């Protein structure tokens, strides 16, 4: 398996493990010696990430993260995902996420994201995913 494919698998496992309810395992398995967070609403470090996931799952216990695309280049992995906070609720269709992860030695060390609410109506029929 190439390093790019390995990095993709690391990010997929990290992200799914965390948002399926086990952020401690995701951090233990996949975080590097430091974690830099670029989302201005989140603090740096593994403890902040773990706390955020527990908070979010506390607010939305049935949330579901569906990774639609994964792209890797160099030390970066990008995911395009649907974060459905309330599956089955047409009033809250969730969020479209673009997450950028930088890895060192096969471990996640840095994160950026772009988040957009999934609208109830669209000017086109293409969908967001």
Task: Give the SSE map.
Layout: H1 3-19, H2 23-30, E1 31-37, H3 46-59, E2 64-73, E3 76-84, E4 95-104, E5 107-117
Parallel strand pairs: 1-5
Antiparallel strand pairs: 2-3, 3-4, 4-5
Protein name: SnoaL-like domain-containing protein
GO biological process, one term: polyketide metabolic process
Pfam family, one: SnoaL
> What class do helices, strands and sheet pairing give?
alpha+beta
Query: Mean of the pLDDT scores?
Result: 96
Biggest β-sheet: strands ordered side by side in the sheet: 1-5-4-3-2
How is the CATH topology named? Nuclear Transport Factor 2, Chain: A
Low-confidence stretches: none
Strand content: 35-45%
Give the proportion of residues in helices. Answer: 25-40%
Cα(first) to Cα(last) distance is 27 Å
CATH uppermost class:
Alpha Beta
**Alpha carbon gyration radius:** 15 Å
CATH architecture descriptor name = Roll
How many discrete domains? 1
DSSP, total strands: 5
GO biological process, one term: polyketide metabolic process
InterPro entries: Cyclase_SnoaL-like, NTF2-like_dom_sf
Pfam families: SnoaL
Protein name: SnoaL-like domain-containing protein
